[in-house]
Specification:
about 240 residues; alpha/beta; Rossmann fold; 7-stranded mixed β-sheet; 9 helices
Length: about 240
């Protein structure tokens, strides 16, 4: 796959991707993220790179005011169909069209690693997050145990999520990127897929049956060899 050289090429690649696939996770995953954010009814949540709007649906059910932003028209069509009550914004996540300190909760789930400039993306998230606000950012591990066996050992290739622009890093590397650009990591959680708890979850795993095998070995995987990491963060407090 040819790596996009600029934002316009990246956008075109994702328009084509969203015409074929909604790029979502299981419903239990999105409920888990909201629990880790400890959301309170009536507050505002922004999902940066919201894709097909699955998190927005669960956030609205939890009593939140919801906003979703994506640079893909096709993604927002899916989000509008799935969660018609959310405010949806077509924009580049590296230049968020929102005022400073305007959202209580912010999520970015599995997309920061695909930004042209992840550093710029983090700084924009910090800018729009209220001083007392909380963010949840999911990032992929370069050293996921299953990928080390399946891709590296068996095939001699680096792991891939088959996205147009990919980056992987270890736990402390991602943490450093977040904290160098204005976030303070409060807690971090390993993510190795969620046990299906609903009909929609089982539908998800029927689409991706190999992930059930990943789920089966999840209890054996140490933190630093997890599939992804969820970083729950606050804005870094600046010294006066």
């Amino acid at each position: 796959m040819m790596e996009p050289r600029d934002l316009s090429q990246l956008r075109m690649a994702y328009e084509a991707r969203f015409r074929k696939d909604d790029l979502r996770d299981s419903d239990s995953f999105y409920r888990w993220v909201l629990r880790k954010l400890r959301v309170q009814t009536g507050r505002a949540l922004l999902d940066v790179a919201c894709g097909s709007g699955r998190l927005l649906n669960h956030a609205r059910r939890a009593g939140l005011q919801t906003m979703g932003l994506d640079f893909s028209v096709e993604a927002l069509k899916l989000a509008r169909a799935f969660e018609p009550e959310a405010r949806l914004i077509l924009a580049d996540a590296q230049h968020l069209p929102l005022p400073d300190s305007s959202v209580d909760y912010l999520a970015n789930l599995g997309s920061l690693e695909h930004f042209v400039s992840p550093q710029r993306g983090v700084r924009e998230m910090v800018r729009v997050l209220r001083p007392e606000g909380t963010s949840a950012i999911l990032l992929p591990n370069a050293f996921y145990a299953v990928d080390l066996i399946w891709w590296v050992w068996r095939k001699g290739r680096a792991s891939s999520h088959r996205q147009p622009l990919e980056r992987f890093a270890a736990y402390q590397d991602w943490r450093q990127l977040l904290e160098e650009n204005g976030l303070r990591v409060c807690t971090a959680h390993k993510y190795n897929f969620m046990f299906p708890r609903s009909r929609l979850d089982w539908q998800y795993y029927r689409r991706f049956p190999r992930k059930l095998l990943n789920l089966a070995v999840a209890p054996l995987i140490p933190f630093n060899f997890s599939f992804s990491f969820l970083y729950v963060c606050r804005r870094e407090v600046q010294d006066e």
